[in-house]
Amino acid sequence: MKNCVTVQIFYSYQGVDYSPSAVIDFDYYLGKNIQIPPLFHLVASQNDIDIYSYQYEVMEIGQFKYFDAQGLAKEFCHEDSFDVASFQQKWKQADIINRLNAIARQYLSIEDLNKNDSIKTALLAAYQLGRESS
Hints:
By secondary structure, the protein is an alpha+beta fold. It has helices at residues 26-31, 39-46, 54-60, 84-108, 117-133; strands at 4-13, 16-18, 21-25, 63-70, 77-78, 81-82.
């Protein structure tokens, strides 16, 4: 399932109204363990707005609109805000469960880890132990 949102920013610069937008693919960043850049920066770069320009500074304080969210991003998308930090945390939790589900399927012949709470809990504990010891 793709996790993305469209961000549009409304602002005026030198007497002209602008409304650049960009589709932000969160899976691209989180799948590579890259910090999600500020969303206005991504809108600027996808619309060839120089990040060292005054126009960029004006755009940064413009009115943001978020829409067409897909996947887990829907839960954190509101027309005038998007909670990137909470989305990122939920995405990471879902990614861990997906990876553990693949292990359960391969080694334990369990198709849906969510239907087997004790094994899910054990695998999550083993995952956490591995993180703590590295």
